[in-house]
């Protein structure tokens, strides 16, 4: 690890000058300051306490990139992320990327310019070429191929759990329904767990997927209901998918749970006022949010993390649809 | 309005020096830079183009303070606010104040230190002593006594509309139910409009309110249902209040809309999957968000606004509860 001396040598200045730059105290010529700051960056000179404070002073801001804050799952996540950041005096910058890669790249640039200290990213775009493993970024759900730390619910176990609960509720031909992104995402494990458990239990099953995002709900559900009319259980990749299925199936006289048992994923309904209350695999949103921020701090401080993917346990929440 | 020359004179430097400070180009001694920056602040030296860019560079960040991003109304608002800010390259800093005045005061301090360019505030706390009329802050819903610009839906007309729709649906003794904050809030006009319209129409009505926040839902609704069992229409101050009422009334065998017609306020249900779909006074959330940001820009640029309160029209959205 580099010392303040290394920085002084590389910049060709005295140690006292480096210290003045770090503390922003006393007169330093702009050209000298620039040389020192470049040396600090080049050596990735990291804290003793003074340097840490300096670094902190540069940015106490964390960017949260998510497809849309308007989605109840993401707004719950953002709520706890902001709460956890606030404990350490960090501020949250919010970015609805809306799936726009250029907006996400812009925030990565801000990170490289030290305008934000770190990024929490929920992205389904393939921006990984612009992401290196040593920058403070923690992903949620999305698992990058490179060494980006990822916090996620245990999607695989969630899929297994959903299959078991559908069978327990009486389903004999359950289907997994969802959409599939072009790049690898942790959410794909929901399907994998579902399939694996069905095979283990010897249950006949269906997988119905279309490319993400699904542009035409009518076409999606019409085809599903037409081609798989014998399905009597549905595990939907999200609660919203589950709710849409129930509404479309209802139009054709299919009753839930009498004719088809339905289980969603997320647990977006946080009060019991609107029906149906979905049976669902509940993500531990608060724990995911807080763990994400604590891991991000470690990365900001330059520490190596033990794991690349942190999977938190899910639970089944019984609603009115199984 | 001050010129670059005024700044140079006050700082005791050449105009070229001021320009170099503004453009962050060329060598300027830290002490000189400080003098120039102080002079700029003291004179409130505002753009020509160079100065504007300089000012922008200081902060392209707007803070959004709201009680909780987890609430669907606020997350929809935040979605459009971020979208509008993004058009001009501004970033959104998000703060869940959770009704904590100290957190709100902290953001006001950030504004005074130029760490944020402006604040959009949804606050129900009485922080107005710390708010002066010349700082770039725009309030939503909450109407400060001082000259803080406020963007709100037309709560008074919303209250009148709700009363008329309840009567039209057959209610003969409608009630307004809500909670009441200790400081003045625009939302109080929902009640006022309701009362005024009832008087105009000669309709018997009930007002049922408790101090905000309502800590004990059970006590709140038990008392309401016990003391006002003859009520056959409810206008609730928010959709959530309406949903809670429906759930509690249902436990006592009261059917909605057969026995009691119910209208909420906000329009938080943005898809038709969960029931009951509330009949509601829909706030023009997107328009409110975009207007708020455009007004904030004018304040950031030091312009005087024509109005203090901007009220946007609401509409009645028919659901399943009237």
Automatic annotation (TrEMBL), chains A, B:
Keywords: DNA-binding, Repressor, Transcription, Transcription regulation. GO terms for molecular function: DNA-binding transcription factor activity; transcription cis-regulatory region binding. Transmembrane segments: none annotated. It comes from the Bacteria. InterPro entries: HTH_LacI (IPR000843), LacI/GalR-like_sensor (IPR046335), Lambda_DNA-bd_dom_sf (IPR010982), Peripla_BP_I (IPR028082). PROSITE patterns: HTH_LACI_2. Residues 2-56 form the HTH lacI-type domain. It holds the Pfam family LacI. This is Transcriptional regulator, LacI family.
């Amino acid at each position: 690890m580099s010392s303040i001396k290394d920085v002084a040598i590389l910049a060709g200045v005295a140690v006292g000058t480096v210290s003045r730059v770090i503390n922003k105290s006393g007169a330093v010529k702009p050209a000298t300051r620039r040389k020192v700051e470049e040396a600090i960056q080049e050596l990735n000179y990291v804290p003793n306490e003074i340097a840490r404070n300096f670094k902190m002073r540069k940015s106490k801001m964390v960017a949260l990139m998510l497809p849309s804050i308007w989605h109840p799952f993401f707004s719950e996540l953002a709520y706890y992320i902001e709460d956890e950041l606030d404990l350490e005096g960090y501020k949250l910058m919010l970015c609805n990327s809306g799936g726009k890669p250029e907006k996400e790249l812009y925030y990565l640039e801000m990170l490289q310019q030290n305008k934000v200290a770190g990024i929490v990213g929920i992205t389904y775009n393939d921006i990984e070429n612009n992401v290196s493993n040593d920058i403070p970024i923690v992903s949620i759900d999305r698992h990058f191929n490179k060494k980006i730390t990822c916090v996620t619910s245990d999607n695989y176990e969630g899929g297994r759990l959903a299959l078991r609960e559908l069978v327990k509720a009486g389903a004999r031909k359950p289907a997994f329904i969802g959409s599939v992104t072009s790049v690898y995402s942790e959410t794909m494990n929901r399907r994998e767990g579902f399939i694996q458990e069905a095979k283990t239990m010897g249950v006949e099953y269906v997988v119905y997927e279309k490319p993400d995002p699904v542009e035409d709900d009518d076409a999606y559900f019409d085809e599903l209901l037409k081609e798989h009319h014998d399905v009597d259980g549905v595990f939907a990749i999200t609660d919203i998918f589950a709710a849409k299925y129930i509404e479309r199936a209802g139009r054709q006289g299919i009753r839930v749970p009498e004719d088809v048992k339905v289980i969603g994923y997320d647990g977006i309904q946080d009060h019991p006022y609107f029906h149906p209350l979905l049976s669902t695999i509940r993500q531990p949103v608060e724990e995911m949010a807080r763990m994400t921020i604590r891991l991000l701090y470690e990365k900001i401080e330059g520490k190596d993390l033990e794991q690349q993917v942190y999977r938190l346990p899910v639970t089944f929440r019984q609603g009115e649809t199984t």
